[in-house]
Amino acid sequence: MLRGKVVLITGANGGLGTVVTNAFLDARASVAGTALSIQASDFPRANFVAVPAEISSEAQATDLVHRVLARSGRLDALVHLVGGFAGGTTVAETDHSTFARMFQTNLDPFFFLARAVMPVMQKQGGGRLLAIGSRTVLEPAATLGAYSASKAALVSLVRTIALEGRNHGISANVLLSGTKDTPANRTAMPQAARAKWVQPAQVAAMLVHLASDTASQVSGAVIPIYGSEV
Fold first, then answer.
1. 146-169, pLDDT tens digit by residue?
2. Residue 15: its pLDDT value, please?
3. Which of 57, 89, 129, 220 is the most exposed place for a label (fewest CB within 10 A)?
4. Whose CA is closest to 188, among 72, 86, 46, 80?
């Protein structure tokens, strides 16, 4: 489905990232997987390359993209899975450092990477940018103000990129996920009803579809994946 496509996946060996990366590898994409600590043995497949990197600054994100291009010569899709969570306090009780950290974690890296990959995709005549948002973008919850605001800003940025990329064959879409059934969430919420959670394989399948040529006309979409908690 993605044979010949070069895909950069951030957070590639995380709880969600592992499932997503394997899905793209199964679809025959050439995957460059990045995380702070990642190695080729994490995904012992011929179509995988590990690119350890930090992406908290523009220089770091640009260097990452340049390294992928130096190896592959092109970049067909950016699949951005990196994010963070902070909650449990009202807006009145949330300090500015927490608010800023949510934007630094959930918005800035995607912005830096988008700035680096869009000129490349414009030159090659197309590309896909995909990101993970949150259900709280549309349905805010008390004590999650900083997190929800950062994810809402991410959605706005993705939709803006879709508008700016439409004449260059560039699409941009974002998935709004409910609680995902990942090891981290199982540990954090051991008593939760996990049967209702979003299965990472469902998220991965949607991302593979959006990165493919069959979804070339899908852009600016904000797609909910809520599991059985609809």
1. 999 999 999 999 999 999 999 999
2. 92
3. 57
4. 86
